[in-house]
Each structure stands twice: as C-alpha cells, then as structure tokens.
Design a protein that fits this description.
Order of helices and strands: HHH
Largest sheet: none
Shape: elongated
Distance between the termini: 36 Å
C-alpha cells in the first residue's frame, strides 16, 4: 500500500508539477496528502494467513533447492 501511495503521488502530482522552491514542493505534497485523506479507504487483507505461510514455505524450499545446486 505504501508503494501504491507513492506511485500515485508521483504520477498525479510530482510529474505534472513545476516547483521553483522547496516550500512550493512541500505545499504541493501537503495538499496532495490532504486531498488523499479526504476519502480514506481502509486496507483490508484478503489473503488468509495460512495461504501466505504456505507460499513462504514453497519459496523457502525453492531457494534451498537453488542454494544446494
């Protein structure tokens, strides 16, 4: 979610803007954050913990195979 927030910030505000000073950039960042927070959406995890742990086990096994070769 953090990466998504910064991606949106970059695409929607920073790439389109021209900033002549640091305070101007700070103001743009603050206004973007305030606008973003006007309609907050909670992060809802959809994956089950058991599914995530199973993926971790498979990844670990795959890495161990590669390391032993």
């Amino acid at each position: 979610m953090v990466e998504r927030f910064f991606r949106d910030l970059t695409q929607q505000r920073l790439r389109r803007g021209v900033f002549h000073s640091v305070p101007e950039l700070e103001s743009a960042l603050e206004s973007h954050i305030q606008a973003h927070n006007q309609n907050p959406k909670p992060f809802i995890r959809t994956a089950k913990a058991t599914d995530i742990l199973e993926k971790v086990k498979r990844a670990k096994a795959a890495l161990n195979k590669i390391a032993s070769v």
